[in-house]
């Protein structure tokens, strides 16, 4: 289905995840974050870029993997992306919901 995010029509699935990463941009990320009550900071962007890199490398994402990566303390990850940090961060990053997320 199609949804207008930041005045840009994009294709999303029923959960709101982008179906085509090439449609993602920082304005879309900001709007998706705003919908979740998040104002993106440099810390958020660092995580978003990390998740995008892992996705492009076709590496599976998980909370355990985030913890082991050392990119961010896990408690901070939960604070930055409340309500299911990996699901929320992935949605904002424009990548599919990780298989490890229910």
Question: What topology, given as strand order, has the largest sheet?
Answer: 1-2
Uncertain stretches: none
Count of DSSP strands: 2
Put simply, the count of helices is: 5
Count of the separate structural domains: 1
As a percent range, the share of helical residues equals 40-55%
State the separation between the terminal residues, measured CA to CA: 21 Å
User: What structural class do the secondary elements suggest?
Assistant: mainly alpha
Major sheet size, sense and barrel closure? 2 strands, antiparallel
Task: Give the overall silhouette.
Answer: globular
Explain what you see.
There is one protein chain. This protein has one domain (2-93). The chain has five helices and two strands. The model has no long low-confidence stretch (mean pLDDT 93). Helices cover 47% and strands 8% of the residues. The protein is mainly alpha-helical and 102 residues long. It has helices spanning 26-35, 42-56, 63-69, 74-80, 85-93, and strands spanning 2-5, 8-11.
């Amino acid at each position: 289905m199609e949804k207008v995010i930041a005045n840009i029509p994009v294709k999303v699935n029923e959960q709101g995840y982008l179906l085509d990463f090439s449609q993602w941009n920082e304005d879309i990320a900001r709007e998706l974050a705003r919908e979740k009550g998040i104002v993106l900071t440099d810390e958020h962007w660092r995580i978003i870029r990390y998740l995008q890199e892992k996705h492009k490398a076709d590496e599976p994402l998980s909370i355990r993997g985030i913890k082991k990566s050392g990119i961010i303390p896990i408690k901070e990850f939960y604070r930055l992306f409340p309500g299911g940090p990996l699901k929320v961060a992935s949605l904002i990053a424009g990548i599919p919901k990780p298989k490890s997320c229910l």
